[in-house]
Each structure stands twice: as structure tokens, then as C-alpha cells.
Amino acid sequence: MDQPKKNPLRELPPNIWAVSLTSFLMDISSEMVLNILPLFLSSVLGVKTNIIGIIEGVAEATSSVLKVFSGWLSDKLRSRKWLAVVGYGISALAKPFFYFASTWEAVAAIRWADRVGKGVRTAPRDALVADNVTPEQRGLAFGLHRAADTAGAMLGILIAALVVWQLQAAGSTLQENTFRTIVLISIIPAILAVISLAVMTTEKKPEGEAKAPTISFKGLGKNFMFFMIIVGIFDLGNSSDAFMVLRAQERGMSTLHILIMLAVFNLVYTLVSTPAGMISDKIGRKKLIIGGWTMYALIYLGFALAQNVTQIWLLYVAYGLYYGMAYGTAKAMLSDLVPIELRGTAFGTYNAVLGILDFPASLIAGLLWSGAGSWQGFGASAPFFFGAGMALIASVCFLFWKPSQVF
Q1: Domain that holds residue 146
Q2: Residue in 156, 186, 322, 319 with CA at minimum distance from that of residue 248
Q3: Are 2 and 131 in contact (CB under 8 A)?
Q4: By CB atoms within 10 Å of each CB, which of 5, 30, 99, 214 scores lowest?
Q5: 67 or 298: whose pLDDT is higher?
């Protein structure tokens, strides 16, 4: 008699579920605020897109150096958990200050402080996920984590949409009181996220010896170096999602409808992430990443050419499919390319490079859209044409690259 098939989700260790719960709670908090932050800057504070691009770019770049060193430090100390707890704690402490912000400079400072927390926690958390599963479970584990993360984002956006509906109905632009109310509500899940990680996870000591941190990639191997070059090409065209939100507003979408659209995007992302991770365990990461990046190029081309709200809606749904296919899969592939004793350093370097590139990516997008000084830029379509082109170049490079070793 055939044995009943085991549910692979039930085979995952408790730490994976605990880390996923933490990300779920923190994303409820973060996405409530961060998705409407560009609308607050634009509609309430009157900030231009080139300044928003700088804020978003520096916000990610701020955490870049911290990511590589926090990853290395987690290798050196043989401790992932408490560095991650500290990082989540910093972000939780930063949230309430958005309530008092009344200038773009204050918003920028708080946004950057929040990213410091992300810089401290990201690499140790990702390494904690990778440390607790077998190579055959990596895609599933990272897919589940992304699904939980995105489910939290969806719930956070729905809560924000409910607040908008209650306080300003279908008003086309975000109002200041609405933003500040959402900030207050976001504090609760942020605190719960920190508590859940501190209480529910247990430390698993990685084997091997830690090596000193390096920015040169030499200690991480050629596979990692080529992977990062290709991902870097893609990321240079991957500007902040704030520009997609601003594009939706520019095409005539109200604040409430933008939030509902973002919730649907996260629903699709959530539903796709775990199955995509499982598929990557069976057919390989590379195929899913190439497919996801090609889809991204088509989506960005669509954003450049979009004429109405309906088209923006459809593109955002497809954007959720891209994220579900490629985002967690890329992290699982990174785990395949480096030995366990360098995993924290590798995740830190990976996130650091992407964080550094987020600054020029968002700066370029802002300048292409609205220019600087007397130059008025090329308009709202330009950053999306640029992003589509970079994604296609990266996809072709990835297609011809063949890793020489996996772990």
C-alpha cells in the first residue's frame, strides 16, 4: 500500500514559522505607513518626485553598510536571533515619530532610522531561515516567509484603507489627519513583532568558522560575484515602488482605491510565494528568476504606456505575480551559492549591494520623471521605460550564466 504523502509545510521547523509570524506582524505595521508615505509627502507636504526619489533611495542606502556587517557579526557571534530582535526593535521605536513629522526633512530622518533597523535585522533573519532547513527545503522556507511577510502587508494596507474610508471616504488625496491616525494604529503590531521574535525563536548555532567581512566578494566566491553583478544590473532599474503609487495617483486613482489595489497586489504575492518556492526546489531557481524578471520588464513597460486606472490595476496584479515568483527565489538561490559558515555575510553583502543601488535607482527615476532645476525631466513614463530595459538586460545575462557549484 502506498504511503500517504507528507505535507512539506509540516516538515518545516518551528523557527521558520516564528520568523514568518514576526515578519507578518512587522509588515502589518510598516505597510500601513510606508505605502501612503509618498502620498503624504506629495499631497500634504507638497514634495516633488525628485526629492521623494532621494528620500527613498537614501532610506535604503542608509541600511546598506549595516546589512553586511550585521550579517558578518551574526556569523562571528554564532547568533542570528538577538541581532534580528534589535533590528526589529529599532524599527518599532521609529514608527511613532511619523505622527509628529511636519516637514519632508523630518519624514526623511524617521524613514532612514526605520531603515537602520531593517539593516540590522535583515541578514541575520535570512540566515536564521536558511540555517534551520535542508537544501531541499530552502525554496519552500523562503517562499513561506515571503508569503507571511506579504500577507501582513496586505492586512496592513486593508487596515489603512479602512481608516481612509472612515475618515475621508473616497477623497482623491490623502489628508494629514488620516495619515497620523494610521501611524498611531501601526505601533501595536510593530511591538508585537519584536515580542514574538524574542519569545518564540530558539538559536541554532551555525557550524564552521566565521571570516572577516569583505566588500570585495573575494571570500564569497565567483558564483556569488557573478550573481551579484547580474542582480545589480536588474536592481539599478528597480526604483522604489513609491513611483508606482505616484503613477497610479497621476493617472487619476484616489487614495482609497490605491490602497485597495495594493492589498490585491499583496494577496497575489502571498498566494504565489509558497508554491513558487516549492517549484524552485524541483525545477531550479534560475528558471523562475528569469521568468519573473521578464514579467517585470513587461509590467514596467505597461506602466510607462498606461492610459487609465483599469490598466494600472491589471499591471499591479501582475506585479504581485512577479514578486511571488522571483523575490524569495533569489534569496533561496543565494543560499545555494555560499557555504553555511559565510551565509550571514553573504546575505548581508547581498542586501547591502541592493541597498546601495536603491539610491541611484530611485534618484534616476525621480530625475527622469521631474528633472532638476530648470530641466523638467522626461515625464512620468520615463523611469518605467528605463526599468524595463535594465530588467531585460539582466534576464539575458542570467540566461547565459551557469553557476559552477552549489551547496
Answers
A1: 13-400
A2: 319
A3: no
A4: 5
A5: 298
406 with 337: CB under 8 angstroms?
A: yes
What CATH number is associated with residue 119? 1.20.1250.20
Task: Domain count for the chain, please give it.
Answer: 1
Contact in structure between 106 and 44 (CB atoms under 8 Å): no
Three cell numbers, residue 121: 535585522
Distance CA 166, CA 184 (A): 15
Q: Please give the backbone phi and psi of residue 372, each rounded to the nearest 5 degrees, phi first.
A: -155, 145
φ and ψ of 375, to 5 deg = -80, 130
Percent pLDDT > 70 in the chain is 92
Residue 206: what pLDDT? Answer: 54
In DSSP notation, 83-138 reads HHHHHHHHHHHHGGGGGG--SHHHHHHHHHHHHHHHHHHHHHHHHHHHHTS-GGGH
Eight-class DSSP state of 375: B
Cα–Cα distance for residue pair 321/291, rounded to 1 Å? 10
Tell me if 94 sits within 8 A of 110, measured CB to CB: yes
**CB within 8 A of 239, min separation 6: which ones?**
53, 56, 358, 361, 362, 364, 365, 366, 383, 387
Kindly state whether residue 1 falls inside one of the protein's structural domains. Answer: no
Residue 122 inside a domain? The answer is yes
Q: How confident is the model at residue 4 (pLDDT cuts 50, 70, 90)?
A: low
Asked if the structure places residue 6 within a domain, the reply is: no
Read off the amino acid at residue 162: L
Separation between Cα atoms, residue 60 and residue 197, nearest integer Å: 23
Place of cell 494577496: 267
Asked whether residue 2 is domain-assigned, the answer is no
**Chain mean position to CA 136:** 24
